[in-house]
Specification:
Elements lengths: L2 H13 L6 H17 L1 H12 L3 H27 L2 E3 L8 E9 L2 E5 L7 H13 L2 E5 L5 H14 L5 E3 L4 H8 L5 E5 L2 H13 L4 E4 L4 E5 L5 H13 L9 E7 L3 H16 L15 H9 L5 E4 L3 E2 L4 E2 L2 E4 L16 E7 L2 H10 L5 E5 L3 H10 L4 E4 L13 E2 L5 E2 L1 E2 L2 H6 L1 E9 L15 H9 L2
Parallel strand pairs: 3-4, 3-6, 4-5, 6-7, 8-9, 8-15, 9-14, 13-14, 15-16
Antiparallel strand pairs: 1-2, 2-20, 7-18, 10-13, 11-12, 17-19
């Protein structure tokens, strides 16, 4: 079926009003939950094929998070859909005023390859609960997962309601040339710009979840052992191919040596003496990304790791010391298991360097000094902040998640996912009597009364 024909069929189905029924939405959310439960092993196999992803990471960071999102929507959808009464004013008296959340219509969700289940099905839960029809575009860089999603969703949902468009850049280009009512994109800044360009032609609202260099800043009062364990966990999860992974470490010079020592111990604890043999460490998605990441080690001092194997796109968890802030590893998002480490004496000396970086999705701060923490939170721009840990803020569905500036805009997760795929619609219902005549001509003495009101 041609994409334009598919969109038209979804528009007709949306206009039938079926997707607006709350009972329908709940049924479809329950169906999505059933897909995840009944085909859990299939997802584990597909993600292992695409990314060598350990089953634990698939079940925790992909399946469980989507399940939790669905459960939250099932529990709260009725209340989220209830109209909210608001006040009127002198001119609208007497009237009833309320705000309703209205679905956009036909949504397009473009997912990413690094979490190919989570980053497409979590937004889908929001689109379903919002009352929309949806077309999904999984990443072609995770082909096994893309194929599995296409097969399962077509089996459980009619294509006029939810459909999957598989393919590469040409498919994405054809989709974006069409008019959608909402676009949700997860991916790189470069592709996000192109999505916005196309969306602007139809004035389509967009949510962009992009990347960025998320800094982990460790103050001198922090516990280096705790910081090492938590930061290395975030850096090694999915072999560092996470948009909110700590991208570089900025640590007080008094803690640097002990941090590196503890980090080496942590890597051995996690993956043994030979991480390449560990069943708990993923691989780089393809050879192109493998070569790009390997090139970022050139000209740096390797403090731990550094081993690679091009036959299996393996890069070891690696600590490194770049010569300066201008090294290539500090100029682009790494998206791999490399952790550049820079030191500072006074945070004020390096703060301008951090401020010049593109705004990250998440800022990580390690300290118990409330004044120091508050100062950095106020002086830096970021989508979200996590203190004394990394990445767990993403798992809390009661916190909005999204970027700012180059890391994107718009938020989702939990209620915010529902609101990302709906729009507030103001509705006023006027009464016949009594009627305020102040607005009607002739104005005569009414101007004096209006001026008195303006002086209140």
């Amino acid at each position: 079926m041609e994409i334009s024909e598919l969109i038209q069929k979804q528009r007709i189905f949306f206009q039938s009003g079926r997707t607006r029924e709350i009972s329908w939405r709940n049924e479809q959310l329950q169906t999505l939950k059933t897909i995840l439960s009944d085909h859990q092993d299939d997802f584990v196999d597909a993600l292992h094929e695409d990314l060598h992803k350990p089953p634990f990471e698939t079940l925790s960071a992909e399946i469980l998070m989507v399940r939790q999102e669905i459960d939250l929507h099932l529990k709260n959808l009725d209340s989220w859909c209830k109209p909210k009464s608001v006040r009127g004013n002198l001119f609208t008296f007497p009237s009833d005023n309320e705000i309703r959340r209205a679905p956009f219509g036909v949504s397009l969700i473009i997912g990413s390859w690094n979490y190919p289940v989570n980053l497409i099905l979590q937004p889908l839960a929001g689109s379903i609960s919002g009352g929309n029809c949806t077309i999904l575009k999984p990443s072609e860089l995770a082909p096994a997962t893309s194929s599995l999603l296409a097969g399962l969703l077509s089996r459980y949902y009619p294509t006029e309601y939810i459909a999957v468009a598989e393919g590469g850049a040409d498919t994405a280009k054809r989709l974006l040339s069409e008019r959608f009512d909402k676009i949700f994109f997860t991916g790189s800044f470069r592709i996000g710009q192109k999505v916005m360009e196309q969306a602007a032609k139809h004035c389509t609202p967009v949510t962009l979840e992009l990347g960025g260099k998320c800094p982990a800043i460790v103050h001198r009062d922090a516990d280096p052992e705790v910081a090492a364990r938590r930061i290395l966990w975030g850096k090694c999860l999915n072999a560092g191919q996470t948009c909110i992974a700590p991208d570089y470490l900025l640590i007080h010079e008094s803690l640097a040596d002990s941090f590196v020592r503890y980090a080496n111990d942590v890597i051995r604890d996690f993956f043994g003496e030979r991480p390449v043999d560990s069943p708990d460490f993923a691989r780089i998605v393809n050879h192109e990304h493998f070569n790009r990441i390997c090139s970022l080690m050139d000209g740096t001092k390797i403090l731990a790791g550094g081993e690679t194997d091009p036959r299996q796109n393996y890069i070891a968890p690696t600590l490194m010391s770049p010569p300066d802030w201008d090294h290539p590893v500090m100029k682009e998002e790494i998206f791999g298991p490399l952790l550049p480490i820079l030191t500072y004496q006074q945070i004020e000396e390096v703060l301008p360097k951090v401020q010049q970086m593109p705004s990250p999705l998440t800022l990580y701060l390690f300290s118990n000094d409330s004044e120091w923490l508050s100062g950095l939170q106020d002086q830096l721009r970021y989508g979200s902040c996590c203190i004394n840990d990394v990445m767990l803020n993403f798992s809390n569905l009661h916190l909005p998640f999204g970027g700012t500036g180059e890391s994107g805009f718009g938020v989702y997760h939990g209620k915010e996912s529902f609101e990302a795929f709906t729009r507030p619609c103001g509705i006023m219902t006027r009464k016949k009597w009594p009627a305020i005549t102040l607005r009607y001509p002739p104005y005569r003495k009414k101007l004096t009364l209006l001026k008195r009101l303006l002086l209140r």
